[in-house]
Amino acid sequence: MSGLKKKLLQLLFPPKCPFCRKILSGGEELMCAQCAEKLPYTDKKADAGSNFYSRCVSSLYYTAAVRKAMLAFKFYGRASYAACFGRLMADSITKKTEGSFDALTWVPLSRSRLRKRGYSQARLLAEAVGKELGYVPERLLDKPGNIRAQSKIHDSSQRRANVAGAYKTHPGAELTGKRILLIDDIVTTGATLAECAKIMLLAGADEVVCAVLCRGKKLR
Ligand SMILES: [Zn+2]
User: For residue 31, how far is its CA from the centre of ligand 1 (angstroms)?
Assistant: First the structure.
């Protein structure tokens, strides 16, 4: 994009803070200074692993302001927020994990959900994180069919049952011996991430580390 065109676009659509919608001022990049200071950042204690993944790095707690930004990103076309979210996630990954990864991937949507929404929010996040950390995301997983939305199920064992068998490895994906960074937008019970990690371990992956933008509150 030419410098002039970029300037015009910025005049017509001034970049806004994803969290409070304030128009960003000159020195502010991706989000406003107030939000950068006051966002509900998680600490390392929040990021425990499960049976199948060794750690789940999160950046923010899912408070009202974070939820609003996420809903705009997921359902109202604010794909541009991925740059801000990806920066937050990359910072957390750098701070909270050691060593490098052999592959970067994301939790896929089913084809029909993807068609309806037009883009995969987890893939956009994986691309943004990859840009920050120097990885090119690879499709390692598929979600062949639709399942009931996890967000509509409020019991953790029912969530585990709902996602069981929902994912498989992508044809030709090479996982043997790899340390994989798996990206999604939010973790609540961890059932989806655990199912995806399990599939990748069964296919020969050495370790799966998860990273999400936000961590929702615990369910029953
Ligand atoms: Zn803000």
Answer: 6
Ranges of each domain in the chain: 42-215
Give per-residue pLDDT as tens, 118-168. Answer: 889 999 999 999 999 999 999 999 999 888 888 888 888 898 888 888 999
Dihedral pair phi/psi, residue 74, rounded to 5°? -80, -40
> How is domain 42-215 classified at the CATH fold level?
Rossmann fold (3.40.50)
Residue 215 alpha carbon to ligand 1 centre in Å:
19
Sheet hosting strand 207-215, strand order edge to edge? 55-61, 207-215, 179-187, 103-106
Q: How far apart are CA 41 and CA 65, in angstroms?
A: 12
User: Cα separations (Å) of 59 from 46, 69, 88, 171, 210?
Assistant: 10, 14, 6, 31, 12
